[in-house]
Amino acid sequence: xxxxxxxxxxxxxxxxxxxxxxxxxxxxxxxxxxxxxxxxxxxxxxxxxxxxxxxxxxxxxxxxxxxxxxxxxxxxxxxxxxxxxxxxxxxxxxxxxxxxxxxxxxxxxxxxxxxxxxxxxxxxxxxxxxxxxxxxxxxxxxxxxxxxxxxxxxxxxxxxxxxxxxxxxxxxxxxxxxxxxxxxxxxxxxxxxxxxxxxxxxxxxxxxxxxxxxxxxxxxxxxxxxxxxxxxxxxxxxxxxxxxxxxxxxxxxxxxxxxxxxxxxxxxxxxxxxxxxxxxxxxxxxxxxxxxxxxxxxxxxxxxxxxxxxxxxxxxxxxxxxxxxxxxxxxxxxxxxxxxxxxxxxxxxxxxxxxxxxxxxxxxxxxxxxxxxxxxxxxxxxxxxxxxxxxxxxxxxxxxxxxxxxxxxxxxxxxxxxxxxxxxxxxxxxxxxxxxxxxxxxxxxxxxxxxxxxxxxxxxxxxxxxxxxxxxxxxxxxxxxxxxxxxxxxxxxxxxxxxxxxxxxxxxxxxxxxxxxxxxxxxxxxxxxxxxxxxxxxxxxxxxxxxxxxxxxxxxxxxxxxxxxxxxxxxxxxxxxxxxxxxxxxxxxxxxxxxxxxxxxxxxxxxxxxxxxxxxxxxxxxxxxxxxxxxxxxxxxxxxxxxxxxxxxxxxxxxxxxxxxxxxxxxxxxxxxxxxxxxxxxxxxxxxxxxxxxxxxxxxx
Length: 701
Ligand code: ADP
Ligand code: MG
Description:
By secondary structure, this protein is an alpha/beta fold.
């Protein structure tokens, strides 16, 4: 085969004229032969199976049955007529139904002659029926059967309207195979194909488009999924290796005075085993001479802050500065206050820098950063400003990273000649499967254990009609000295409407919880930061018992005395957001509660989300459900990630293949890190093509 065969523009394919070429390009992004050959069916109609009528059940989907029509009749309905055929086989009787095209069907149907019918099975009033079935005389069917599994290609309305039907797609691909002679080079090394008993490339491509049998189809799918995931993993692992080889990092080889003193004398609690393990992992990274790039995952309340502090102390012990960046002013302030308290007895200098830091103070901070007398800087995005220059930044810690983009992370790197070590902390548990594909270039640590003595939060779902009871519950909790959050959704598109909901809610709460007995704080996005802080502070100090807010309080806010979280219109929140919000309570010793308020109108997905919240407190389990409901593309912060434009594999369903692909990619690179071995030549070539093309599936030529 001509090596450039697959780079032939699609216009040159037989049966593709200028009009079809334009359509294929515009609607499906198919520009070259290689795009077409890698345009995979998204489902197959299984025609290998024949059902008997007595095997049908209510949930049967698409079925294929052999039988005869013994009777035809017209049935009058309110809206038009329908043509009903009585269809039998040797096990029973059912109906075939047509709502239009009656004359043509009546004229062409042969009574008492064997047919193969195929269609979606309905069950109604005790009878099974197939509306508008595909029909073929058994005789013709036997003669014509080419492939048992019929591929169905993704399509668009426009394509169908312009005559590029599934059948046409099929013909085009057949044409391409004819021209190619079916010879396609393999893109995986031979020893891997043998070891894993993978189908070769040419056969896989053929069977993905024209499956000979269900088994061959499964083999083809496995091979192509493996390949896709293998090259993604290879890229990620290589990126990580290159970083470790090329990007020198500062070596923190001293576990010095500050770390040891704090560890021995000032830890306010015993660390959990998970915290100890993670600190060890971080210490190992910091002690090597490669730059650390580590993601620390830990559910809300799992105790990430102390890990951040201990890491920062290591930096200072080695003569470096550290910074901690948080996504909101409230959070940055809270970190600052919390850390200030923790290191009270240590001789270190900590400062806070946010958008509302006054000019004079700002100047002081800039100077102290430059002369090195400031050890830990805590702040918001303000830290990223060019004016903020460090003497020697050794460690950058980013809290709640999904709020920050990758670009911002990179910005921190350029504050020095040698990039600082980076620790990214997130409370949004990313399912391992997703983390492996997304952050394969980060090392991952997990705190999978909550500090002892926490009582699991009790979560319930209540309808708006039960509001009076919920209010009574709030009164009881407040009488016990606890505090309550009431959160309203805020979704950008309907901001004004949401604001009105919040205000209406606030008024009704103010009526039911009158001053002076009850004091209420309110925080929302349309307030000035200073006013927000005042309201927040009142709640933190316990001067108000109820905090009415939008999702501003989602992240990180810590008020241990708050024991009730009420989420209004909970059906409008995503799962990870609900989980984050719930994490605001359950931080003290008291039993805490989360009440999800909704109307009666709930979609299936909303129901699943609510049930999941009620069932479990485990952030990872919730993240898995979330991933299944939304698909990986929508998980917060992953939208930009091209990694997830998978063509054939599914990160959730093909988890096992992903693991295998990762394992073999690692093994290969361990053995041959520079891809120099002859046996890995095809990997090197393929990898280069992927790098040049930026997409995984255009490299096979
Ligand atoms: P997050 O991981 O959500 O940032 P924090 O670091 O804010 O969690 O910790 C939550 C609370 O748990 C804090 O009040 C902290 O002091 C406390 N905490 C953290 N680790 C432990 C521990 N090992 N034992 C007891 N309490 C702890
Ligand atoms: Mg935190």
